Structure formats: structure tokens, C-alpha cells
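Anyone opening a protein record will find just a pair of labelled lines. With that in mind, the following record should read easily:
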Amino acid sequence: MEDFLASKRNTSGFSHSKIILTGEHAVVYGNPAIALPFPLKVEAIIEEITSDIIVESTFYTGPLEQIPTKLKGISACIQQVLSDLNRPCDKLKITIHSQIPIGKGLGSSAAIAVAIVRGLFSFFETKLDDETLAAFVHTAEVYAHGNPSGIDMATAMSDTPIWFQNGDIVRLEVTSPLHFVIADSGRIGNTQKTVSRVRALYDKDEVLKENSLRRMKEIAFAAKSAMAKGDILELGKLLNKNHSELIRIGVSDDGLNQLVHTAKKAGALGAKLTGGGDGGCMLALTDSKEKAEEISSALASAGAHQTWCFTIES
């Protein structure tokens, strides 16, 4: 076990998950997307110890220098923060508590990085602005996604829904409560692979690319308007249209489509996959918490690995 100092210091940094409401995949091409903060939490606890820096989590516990390749983004992020703060890379324990399932399109890598950076800056009693935070988190996201759009990071840093386009972020107001159900298909997606597959499809067919991106852009703008007006019926219809577009470009699968169908049959106003697709999660919009619970039960009965209900309010 690691040796703790008798009078150890410790602080925590926090973040949360994200849900893409509209615009996944299209956002990579400069289209707008709408993303929502999703209340699955991450806490990064920073403690002073007498041994070399270690990381403790459900997915890896051990020295930072031996962290697995799939977590190198976290390592690089930590080392960059410590270097920029002119702090030695030792005598720290970083414990990560995350409620976010990995590989399900819920922004786990970005949320973990945000929590760690916030925790480290708090531990060293250094002021942290959003621009600096984003720069450090981007380092981790490059390892995780290759060429990230930045939407995961932006949403993990925001407590409100956001409109995201080419790195520009606008906070969105919600005039009526939006009740959602999220269902985990139980299959791990791979955003890098689906993004690459869509790019190959678009490269082969310029007309398809142009029409697809135009339609998804129109859906995003219409969804933004529906949210501002509190028109949840229209928003539900737009989510259905968005899912059809994602099917058209080949990023949904039979399992996700079945969950979407189940949610609509159970009374959802609209439903779609969320995130990269080919597994991962889907979302459903409804008009009440009670209906959300009903849809959640229906999705669980249809084979969803896990479900969550949450509400976005003004």
C-alpha cells in the first residue's frame, strides 16, 4: 500500500457525463450539434503521499508510468498539468470515482480528464480558467479519439445545454422541462471507427454527403428553435428524423433500432441513438417523469443493459 503523509492534503475535482441530442457525426464536418449535461458524475481525488505518483480507479490501479496504452491520454494530461505548474511528477495519489460507463458515447474520457485537471489545480491552489482547462483536456481527448470535435469536453465543462459548432459554444435556454430516458445497449461502441466509416462513405458519394449534412444541419437548427419555444412535440419529431439520418449513414444497428422502436411504442415523443453508434446508448424524450419511468421499464424488458431517467430544466 502507498505511504500517506501524517498530515496529508487532499482535494477533489468534479465533472459529469454528456448526451448528444442532435448532430453527432455531422459535428465533425462543422455542422452544429446540441449536447446536454448528463448527471453521471466523476470525482478525481488528489492526495499527497510519500511514494511515486499512482492512479487508482476501477479500470487501472498502479504507478502512473505503467498506465495501460488505452489510458495514455490521462497520463499525458496529468504530466502536462504538472509540468506547466512546475510541480514534480511524484508524491501524489489520484483516485478516480466515475459513474460513467466507458465506450458508450457518454463522454467518459473527457469527463475524467476535466475532473482530474480541476482536482490538480485545486490541490496546488492555482486558479483555473476554461481556456486553460480545455487545453489540458484536449490532450487527453486526442489520445482517446484521434481528432476530437471538442463537444464532449465542452459539455463536460458546462452545467447547461450547449450549442456547439466549430469549437464555438453557446449556452442554450430551456423554457419547458425536458424529460429523457437513456438506455445502454450493452455493447461498446467505437467512435473512431464509426467516424472513419462515415468519412469513407462521404468520400465515395459527394451528393450523399451534401444532402446528409444539410438535413442534419436543418434538424439541429429546428431542434434549437423547438427547445426555445418549449415545443416538445416538435422536438420529438426532430429526434426521430435525426435517427433516420444516422441509419442512412450506417452508424445505427439492429439493437439500437430495436430500443428506439420500443421507446416510441411505449409512448416516447421521439427517440434516437446518441453518440458514435454501433452500440453504446440511445435516448428517448417524453413529457413527464412518470412516462419516462414507464419507458425505462419497457427498455429494460426489451434488453437494455442499463437505463437512466433525467430532466433538463431552466
In short: Residues 206-229 form the longest helix (24 residues).
